[in-house]
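Moderator note: this is an archived Q&A kept for reference. The question asked for a predicted structure of one protein chain; the sequence and the answer are reproduced below.
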Amino acid sequence: MQRIDAHQHFWDPARGDYGWLTADLPALFKPFGPDDLAPHLKAHGISGTVLVQAAPSLAETDYLLEMASRTPFVKGVVGWVDFEEPGQAQELDRLAQNPLLKGIRPMIQDIADPDWMLRSDLDWAFRALIAHDLAFDALVLPKHLVTLHRLIDRYPDLRVVIDHGAKPQIRDGAFEPWASDIARLARDTGALCKCSGLVTEARADWTPADLAPYLDHLFGSFGPERLIFGSDWPVLTLAGDYAAWFETVRTATSHWTHDQQAALFGDNARRFYRLS
């Protein structure tokens, strides 16, 4: 089984384009690069990763692509372009020439308008993703799931993966309407979903039992063939360590067949992101 961590980040706060990353988060407010992640990958038999944007800037996407070009274990990059600027179609054309670019992720969770993704002036961007065969990473919250469903209905050829299970409010014990909305989306569309980012939505003293209802619901809604493992490292370190999250998911799926586990931990990511 060749495992893939399909959601991890590198950054250097000194770059200055991470608006959310401030000294108020001392555990994260420092550079993180390949040498920091490599020991975790080795310890868990993970041979490749997908490197995901963390700043809303073209400069960061270029920075990540350059880093990926000299980091053998990075198999693909999910970058960013400004969907609100149709003139950036040329920038997307340029970025798409790099075979390491596998997808684009607007930071929807930080946008005030919950229906932002349905704006007519963003049509060019979604059609460009389809034309370039690039994935759309949906960084959404539970309140966005109904809108995301409508977006996928509008663009049925758009390849969509939901980041972090749409971030259910685990620390508050909130299950609905997240559970119904994500089950409906899974039933009605071909979207995939990442098993990632859940520990930072739980209490600081979370246990696997706290996550179990949410993981089980994602498992039942999407099935092994449409789920993708990701760590969300180093954001993960705010609420735990790499080993704890990996073992939580591995244990929760230990009753799955070998092929089902292989799908979750690598095959689905390779297929969805067109990884070589």
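Archived answer notes: The chain has one domain: 3-272.
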